[in-house]
Amino acid sequence: MLPSELLARKQFFFQCGEENTTERDVELLGDDCLLWASDFPHEATRTDLRALVKEFFDRRDLPPAAKNKIARANPKRFYAL
User: What is the pTM of this model?
Assistant: First the structure.
């Protein structure tokens, strides 16, 4: 299936907010279909989640609106909250 066909299905893509590819993912896919992937609560025992969230929102390579969508708006829409 072509990437354009996947996007036409309004499919979501999971990615980790701390990845180096996040900026490229936003450029290629847009910020409406990305979610911050998490293995919560499993990673909470080995990872400082507050530090990861702060690091994500402190990134300078992503616009504030994209960070908000990836970490807040898109997950709310995905889970129908």
Answer: 0.73
